[in-house]
Structures are given as structure tokens and as C-alpha cells.
Amino acid sequence: xxxxxxxxxxxxxxxxxxxxxxxxxxxxxxxxxxxxxxxxxxxxxxxxxxxxxxxxxxxxxxxxxxxxxxxxxxxxxxxxxxxxxxxxxxxxxxxxxxxxxxxxxxxxxxxxxxxxxxxxxxxxxxxxxxxxxxxxxxxxxxxxxxxxxxxxxxxxxxxxxxxxxxxxxxxxxxxxxxxxxxxxxxxxxxxxxxxxxxxxxxxxxxxxxxxxxxxxxxxxxxxxxxxxxxxxxxxxxxxxxxxxxxxxxxxxxxxxxxxxxxxxxxxxxxxxxxxxxxxxxxxxxxxxxxxxxxxxxxxxxxx
Length: 303
Known about the structure:
Elements: H1 5-32, H2 43-97, H3 104-125, E1 146-149, E2 152-155, E3 163-167, E4 170-173, H4 178-182, H5 189-201, H6 209-266, H7 270-295
Helix pairs in contact: 1-7, 2-3, 2-6, 3-5, 5-6
């Protein structure tokens, strides 16, 4: 069989080009640390890497959402701690107000204290978060949820829960509404405080002594119920914060698993790659020498 000079050239050049291409691919893998530069390098592994990367991205987004949820709940918990302390101080003041030896003037001092507490509680109920949204307004986050009036304060927010997807299987409420916290079950803390202020500012006489005593007892009962309700809301928030911590642990474990899977799929075996690079270099040098030697042959060398 005759082999033309052109065929010899083309065969040699093709062989060297393939070796150079393989050499470039190995050098690229070594420089990036990844064995898959394009999907064509390993279609099956590329598809699997894409799937794992997508799952890893979703897991990271859930982690970001949990961080937002944690911030909101911590802000709420901090605010409710202040509410709790104020209500405890109201209980203490009302116990003192029931002292039969107190004068009208002394009860008036307590009334002034309760009026200040009422204003403070309304202020806490109208607190904004770091983003400027009202904590207790439901979805009406741009509107102050409570408006002070002669009977205490009226709620103008709504009862909607702000839900965040903190995990693939879990949506979590990250707010508490004003009616849920301060007016639960018809027990209006603000109305109770306003009634107590009015009661303590009314001069005490034998004729209204019984009504005064009953009013103090009713007020204490209402404040205790309101305090219990606030503590219940705080317990719920604490439970959600604990759940977020647990979900973070699970999310971190998933993150490690995804990273390990991606590493196993994509990362380069440097020892094998360097060995292949050296072997490929040797073969290419030999091919180049062989090509030069072959293409320089002539029949005149054998005459």
C-alpha cells in the first residue's frame, strides 16, 4: 500500500495536535483544581455536580432566611422583655395602692406612675424593627398599630402572621400581632391601666371604699392575666428560636455533605494529573521527534 507524503504529514500533525490538546486540558485542570472544565469532559458527573450545586444553593438561602427570622424573633423577645418588666412594676404598684393607710395624694402619685407606664407600654407596642417596620402591626408594617385614646389605646393593625420558609419543610411565624399580645381574649392591658389611673385619681370615701377595693382586685387580676399572656408569647418565641438553632445545625451538616459531594465529583487528583502531564509531555516530545525524522526521509538517503 502506498502512503503519500501528504498523508504522513497529516497523520503526524493530527497526532501532535491531539497530544497538545490533551496537554492543554491537563494544564487547565491543574491550574483550576477541577477535573471538569466543561460538561463534555464528563456529562454524567457534570449533571450530578449541577444537581448538588443547586441543592447547596437552596440550603444556603434557607440559612440566610433563618438568620433573618432569628433577628426578627430576637428583636421581638427583647421588646417583650421590657413589656414584662413594666407589667411586673404595675403589679407592684397596685399592691401598694391597695394599702388602706395611703392618702389620696399618695394614690395620686401611683396613678401618675401608672400613666407613665401606660404611655411607655404604648410606645413599646409601637416599636419599629431595624428595617423601620412596626413589630406588632401584622401586615400593616408602615402604620403604628396602637393609637392612644381616652380609654387606653385602640389597635389599628391586623392579625396576619409574617411567615418565612426556614427549611424545605418548615414555615415559621416571625412576628406577634398587637391584639395577640396586649388584648388577648378581650383582656385589654391598656384599658386596664387607664381604668386604674382613673380609679386611683378618684378621692376615696367610705361610700366608694368597696368599689375601690373591687377595682384594685379586678385590675390586679387583669394585669396578671396580661402578664401571663405576654410570658406565653415569649415562650413561643423562645421555642421558635431553639428550633432555628436546631435547623442551623442540620443545615450546616447538609452544607458539609454537599461540599464533600462536589469535591468528590469535581476536584482534581493532583498526583494523577501531574503524572499524566509528565507522561503526555514525554509522548509529545517523542512524537515531535518522530515526525521530524519521518518527514525528512527521502529515497536519496537509500541510494
